[in-house]
Design goal:
Elements (H helix, E strand, L loop, with lengths): L22 E4 L6 E2 L7 E4 L5 E3 L5 E3 L2 E8 L6 E9 L6 E4 H8 L1 E5 L3 E6 L5 E8 L2 E4 L15 H7 L5 H11 L14 H7 L18 E7 L11 E7 L5 E6 L5 H16 L5 E4 L22 E3 L3 H7 L1
Parallel strand pairs: 1-8, 2-7, 13-16, 16-17
Antiparallel strand pairs: 3-6, 4-5, 6-7, 9-10, 10-11, 11-12, 13-14, 14-15
């Protein structure tokens, strides 16, 4: 392990050491060492009694232990630094050559003035360095990435990544080895996702109960759509709230709704032997004069119409 440079002391100031952000290769070190907390993606306080011993036998205190990564020339490849020791008094960030090569399946080539870290299988160069003041210093590969400083839950990663589906979150965390709290549960139900996918607020519950056929009929007009072979552009639906039976009629124009309704009324009242009592429809501008339905010859005292949406009535029954 390299000796520490002598501290500089000025009058009226306490001794201080210059901070070097580079990593240096150390073939004699058994652990990775750093004094910079920011280099650890995740960390936790170290409560053990071990110390780091230098060549002169002095012991240096270990404050934290954590994980870190080294960027490489390949965007999809990073070198993992496991169990990095944070030693506040160390003045250089030191990489243990045996531990780095073993944990990442790489090899190190030391040349008189250069250093190369290569993939053991492909021999591709992942990182390079230069000899600097008797030590091999790694150079930055220039690949921009962002790492998290704390370990967070999968639900927080879900929000950070833009609310993707749970399998995508798991894939990204595993592929890029992002720090995440271990959990056997999937991403919790996200309120923002549920609200974003909702079209309207839920309706209040109702005590209304349909007791016989045709007591309540839902109706809606859909279209326009591409003209069918038979020349139809719309369809109108009728749903009996009691039985959930549904009738569909193809129509060519919205103005045909009145005639179709009369046809439907005669058919179902004869078929089910009940009279239509209530009609529930989302007019939505499709039928400009719903009051025309009231001109049909039935006992209007027992018939009513409403202009709530069909969805609301379905939720109330």
């Amino acid at each position: 392990m390299a000796d520490r440079p002598a501290p500089q002391k000025q009058q009226g100031h306490t001794q201080s050491y210059s901070i070097d952000p580079h990593w240096y290769m150390d073939s004699g070190a058994t652990e990775h060492l750093t004094s910079e907390m920011g280099k650890l993606h995740t960390r936790e306080p170290y409560h053990g009694s071990d110390k780091i011993h230098t060549a002169n036998g002095a012991g240096m205190h270990i404050s934290h232990i954590g994980q870190a990564s080294l960027l490489t020339r390949h965007a999809n490849r990073s070198l993992q630094l496991r169990n990095v020791l944070r030693v506040p008094s160390v003045t250089r960030n030191l990489l243990s050559v045996p531990k780095l090569t073993r944990d990442n399946n790489v090899l190190c080539e030391f040349h008189p003035f250069d250093l190369f870290i290569k993939d053991r299988g492909t021999r591709d160069i992942l990182l390079s360095g230069r000899l600097c003041q008797g030590l091999y210093r790694l150079e930055h590969p220039g690949v921009a990435r962002v790492f998290s400083g704390v370990r967070v839950s999968p639900s927080q990663w879900h929000a950070r990544l833009g609310h993707p589906a749970t399998p995508i979150v798991r894939h990204i965390l595993r592929r890029h080895e992002l720090p995440s709290l271990s959990s056997n549960k999937d991403v919790a139900v996200c309120d923002a996702c549920q609200q974003g996918k909702s079209h309207q607020l839920p309706f209040s519950e109702s005590s209304r109960e349909v007791k016989h056929p045709l007591e309540l009929v839902f109706s809606d007009v859909w279209g326009p759509a591409q003209t069918s072979v038979s020349g139809h552009n719309y369809y109108i639906s009728f749903v009996d709230a009691y039985s959930r039976f549904t009738w569909l009629y193809l129509i060519k124009r919205k103005s045909d709704v009145f005639d179709i309704f009369v046809q439907f009324q005669k058919h179902v009242e004869r078929l089910l032997k009940h009279k239509i009592v209530h009609v529930q429809s989302d007019w939505g501008g499709r039928v400009s004069q719903p009051q025309l339905f009231l001109s049909v010859a039935w006992d209007s005292s027992s018939f009513s119409m409403s202009t709530y949406t069909s969805a609301e009535w379905f939720s109330r029954t």
